[in-house]
Write a structure and sequence with these properties.
mainly beta; Immunoglobulin-like; Protocatechuate 3,4-Dioxygenase, subunit A; 5-stranded antiparallel sheet; flat
């Protein structure tokens, strides 16, 4: 099933000790939990049966697919009959890639030297589709696009990231300049903060942007380290893990962007050693 797309369906079968049971559409209902949220009735309260196969179909709204973990709870009102989702009661959505008749090339360069930056991760997305690519040796990543407005996120090690929007009306190129982060040896003063981001159902979430900002209370950083580790950002990996290099024994405001665009915030205090681990998953 695709993430946040209209025109999709949930299927379930009814059966008893003798096999599938037909003619039971009026006696079945389904509730849905999205990313660990509360179970709510589906908008479609009148499922249809596929012939006389005992397989029943509910039409889903786009909002009912706006999540990474869709947990369906089908119920039957008929004694002795059971109902089970197909292929499962729990479905994990996937993000569709970009499609369109136009070609948009993103060129990522160094803001100071104008040289191309290879291996930068470029994510181009709308409310309903997304695609991520790495730039090649020329700093380029090319996407298929349709006419419209696209958001972008660019990340690469050693540079400050970039976000923004692009309006596509035809083939074209968009140049994005990144500022290099100064290399300062503050290893004795920093700690590697690691935490896991998950859904409310404790499912690890990949590709989630997180940043930590030094609070005003703890921001008395002087000398050559000014601007280093005051704001640090990264994106969760395939296991939902994020690691940020921060100052030791400081207070930070941690911000995590949920898949729906809202922001989850919390206050953290880093440890006094080379690594700091938040053992419990941060459920957003």
């Amino acid at each position: 099933m695709l993430f946040n797309r209209p025109g999709q369906q949930f299927h379930a079968i009814k059966f008893d000790a003798n096999g599938r049971v037909s003619g039971q559409a009026a006696f079945a209902s389904v509730t849905l939990s999205i990313d660990g949220g509360p179970y709510l009735p589906l908008n479609d309260t009148n499922p249809t049966e596929v012939g006389t196969t005992g397989e029943y179909i509910w039409q889903l709204t786009q909002a009912e697919t706006n999540g990474y973990e869709l947990s369906f709870a089908p119920v039957t009102a008929t004694a002795g009959v059971e109902i089970l989702g197909m292929p499962s009661n729990v479905i994990y959505t996937t993000q569709p890639g970009l499609v369109g008749n136009f070609t948009r090339t993103i060129v990522v360069i160094d803001a100071a030297t104008s040289l191309p930056i290879p291996l930068a991760r470029v994510r181009l997305y709308t409310d309903s589709e997304t695609e991520t690519k790495e730039t090649d040796g020329d700093g380029e990543a090319t996407f298929a696009t349709a006419a419209g407005t696209y958001n972008y996120v660019v990340r690469v090690s050693g540079y400050s990231g970039a976000t923004g929007t692009i309006v596509v009306a035809g083939d074209g190129t968009t140049e994005i300049a990144l500022n290099e982060i100064p290399i300062v040896d503050v290893s004795a003063d920093t700690t590697a903060l690691t935490f896991r981001i998950s859904s409310q159902g404790n499912v690890s979430l990949a590709g989630i942007a997180a940043n930590a900002r030094l609070t005003k209370k703890g921001s008395t950083v002087v000398g050559e380290t000014v601007g280093i580790n005051i704001v640090e950002e990264s994106t969760s990996d395939a296991d939902g893990l994020v690691t940020l290099i921060l100052f030791r024994e400081r207070d930070y405001d941690l911000s995590i962007r949920r898949p729906n665009g809202t922001i989850y915030k919390m206050r953290i205090t880093t440890g006094d050693g080379p690594s700091t681990l938040i053992s419990a998953a941060i459920e957003i």
